[in-house]
Design goal:
There is one protein chain. The protein is built from 25 helices and 12 strands. With 678 residues, it is α/β, with parallel strands linked by helices. The strands form 2 sheets. It has a 6-stranded mixed beta sheet with strand order 5-4-3-2-1-12. The protein has a 6-stranded mixed beta sheet with strand order 6-7-8-9-10-11, covered by helices on one side. Helix 21 packs antiparallel against helix 22. The termini are far apart.
Length: 678
């Protein structure tokens, strides 16, 4: 009732003109957020960037809030991730569309909670923002790119908050600053909350100023090498000898400068370091008496992105990249262990490229005794004229402050840097320069983040989740009396249980998993969904839904094939269906039909009847996360993204029969990726 009254009141005051201003406000927030990060890197803008969006959300419905938030996210990530266009427009569009959903979720969830707790709006803004950001960064679908706190990587007093609760606590404080300004403009009479927010912000700033001034103690001399080899040349055999010569020369320069520890960038050596013909012992002798952290793309029993720590002819340890970039490293086998490596000059924790964006990588290394953190990367794929390398480099100061560790970042084409535990950049090499940085490292310092502050994101997410779900828990007894809710639960639980049994049964009896389980899912969906009509099998509309679905799958598949051929020299070959072309295709189509009839047929129909179309789209998409939990990231991303798109097509056409054909084609495209993982 409160929601309806507030929306009606604002509607009387504004109309179409106010709606236009709301759209402009949401778009303005997107532009301001993009400006707060590299390449413009105007960090102070982050403290006001959310205010236009917060103003736009006043008095709108939850659905409208979702749309306004999506606009903010689309503008923000569309501009900030413009470097992704280098990998094809579809890649950029998919990334933008996916990440914008989280900003939309923030806006909708905030609006929903404010309508129920209007007096706590000022507190809810930073809490919900940070919680959604944690959700975006966590789990197998985690994409921790550009958290709000990252915008403060050069604002050292504010950045020190990361030593207490990590980058997400910095994000919360910045969002609190936005809420503080918003309240001063819109809710100036709520002085108690505004005053409390002001005290918290002042306290955070005072803590940061104090911490930056605490002394640090110098230890060893660390060198990072930047060979500046164009990425597309790294795989060309004709250039391998020149690449090896460059690394030998830079290593000698680092030794002459007195470096105790010498760090290569990612995959710096074009040939194997390990194995019978590996060059590990030779590379270790390039700098006798020093510790050399070398790297290569090791080819053998699998393809591994590895770091080999050497001391003379001795191999002290090996680290293999564990967190792979989804769809960008299809032929690489991930590592399974990440313990720090002990050396004569200290224990080192290692992160390779994309891994530096995940706080848990550096945190675990520090908690296990590393004295400093090494980041090896090759950002040359981003191109020199984009914000990609600068955005990635911004994580180094954040990881240093979180863990209290000196960070040495070696990048193939830049940006290489060394950072002390307070986030101060000690040495830096710009893009497209071949050179060496030699810096005196500093001893580790203690941080509350390592002692327990790392639990802050989990506690925050759990708290906001409980606050959000409380009305649902209270309403649950009443829902069980509604036929629509009971039918929805049945359509999810019955066929869903069979879908979860499919992988297990496939190991026992492939025949049963290909034929019995899909048919059982199809039958269960019809029985629990209220009959065959609930499955949305519309033969007359099937051509349109098939055309739209195949267009999406074909576009994504073609983009992957082109990018793999251009950057990795890999050919994406569609595998034959398991069981042969005739029987295999038949079982594949049956499985695809069962999946679509269940989720976009029975579940969608039941959810739409109970709570509307938007709810149906969400609920028919999310079960893929449960069914495919534990699969490689590509499978999860593909299933969720295409599931959401197919749900949209289902809304347009009312048919899932044609979608089954697109689903089958998508399974074949996706099957080519694991086949590339040697």
């Amino acid at each position: 009732m409160r929601e309806r009254q507030e929306i009606q009141e604002v509607s009387r005051q504004g109309g179409i003109a106010l709606g236009l201003w709301r759209v402009l406000g949401a778009g303005a927030s997107g532009l301001l957020l993009a400006a707060a990060f590299p390449p413009l890197d105007i960090g102070w803008i982050a403290w006001v960037a959310l205010v236009p969006l917060l103003w736009s959300l006043r008095g709108v419905s939850i659905g409208a809030a979702f749309g306004l938030g999506y606009l903010t996210g689309a503008v923000w990530f569309g501009v900030a991730l413009s470097w992704a266009i280098l990998f094809g427009l579809p890649t950029w569009a998919v990334l933008t569309a996916l990440l914008a959903l989280y900003v939309a979720g923030f806006a909708a969830l905030l609006r929903w909670l404010v309508l129920r707790h209007p007096l706590w709006e000022l507190a809810l803004i930073p809490l919900v923002w940070a919680a959604v950001e944690v959700a975006r960064s966590a789990g197998p679908l985690g994409i921790p790119w550009l958290p709000l706190g990252l915008s403060q990587h050069r604002a050292l007093p504010i950045l020190q908050i990361a030593s207490v609760g990590g980058v997400h606590l910095v994000s919360l404080v910045v969002a609190l600053g936005n809420a503080f300004l918003f309240a001063l403009l819109i809710r100036p009479r709520r002085m108690a909350l505004i005053g409390t927010a002001g005290v918290l912000l002042a306290g955070a700033l005072a803590f940061g100023i104090w911490r930056v001034q605490t002394p640090l103690h110098r230890t060893i001399r660390v060198a990072v090498l930047q060979p500046n080899v164009p990425p597309l040349q790294k795989g060309t055999p004709a250039t391998w000898e020149a690449q090896i010569t460059t690394m030998r020369t830079l290593t000698a320069r680092a030794q002459d400068a007195g470096a105790d520890l010498i760090v290569f960038p990612e995959t710096a050596m074009p040939v194997n370091l390990l194995g019978p013909e590996g060059l590990a012992s030779q590379v270790g002798e390039w700098a006798p008496g020093r510790v050399v952290v070398a790297s290569s793309l090791e080819v053998g029993e699998g393809l591994h992105n590895s770091v080999i720590v050497l001391h003379g002819r001795d191999v002290l340890g090996v680290y293999t990249k564990r967190r792979l970039v989804p769809f960008a490293e299809p032929s690489v086998t991930p590592g399974t262990r990440g313990e720090p490596i002990a050396t004569p000059v200290g224990t080192v924790g290692i992160a390779i490229c994309y891994e530096s964006a995940f706080p848990e990588i550096g945190r675990a290394a520090a908690q296990q005794g590393s004295d400093l953190l090494l980041v090896l990367t090759n950002d040359g794929w981003f191109g020199p004229a984009t914000g990609g390398p600068r955005q990635h480099a911004a994580y180094a100061p954040v990881r240093a402050v979180e863990t209290g560790r000196f960070v040495a970042r070696a990048a193939n084409t830049g940006i290489s840097m060394t950072v002390d535990p307070h986030g101060r950049v000690q040495g830096r090499l710009p893009l497209d320069v071949q050179s060496v940085i030699v810096t005196e490292a500093t001893a580790p310092v203690r941080t509350l983040y390592l002692r327990g502050g790392w639990l802050f994101p989990t506690v925050l997410l759990a708290g906001v989740s409980l606050l959000s779900l409380a009305p649902a828990f209270r309403a649950l007894p009443g829902w069980w009396q509604e036929a629509g809710f009971i039918r929805l639960v049945a359509t999810l639980a019955g066929p869903g249980t069979l879908a979860l049994l499919g992988p297990w049964l496939g190991r026992v009896s492939p025949l049963a998993s290909r034929w019995v389980i899909p048919f059982a899912i199809l039958l269960a969906a019809a029985m629990t969904g209220g009959g065959w009509r609930a499955l949305a099998l519309r033969p007359r509309r099937a051509p349109l839904s098939a055309l739209l679905g195949l267009g999406i799958v074909g576009g994504l598949g073609a983009t992957m094939a082109i990018e793999y051929a251009s950057y990795l020299g890999l050919t994406l070959r569609l595998p034959a269906p398991a069981g042969g072309w005739f029987l295999g295709t038949a079982s594949l189509l049956l499985s695809a039909l069962a999946w679509e009839a269940w989720l976009h047929g029975a579940v969608f129909t039941a959810a739409q009847a109970w709570r509307g179309t938007a709810f149906a789209i969400i609920l028919s998409t999310l079960p893929a996360l449960v069914v495919y939990w534990g699969a490689v990231q590509e499978v999860l991303f593909w299933s969720v993204f295409t599931g959401a798109i197919f749900a949209g097509i289902r809304v347009l056409t009312g048919d899932v029969l044609g979608l089954a054909l697109a689903r089958a084609a998508g399974i074949l495209v996706l099957a080519a990726l694991p086949a590339l993982r040697i």
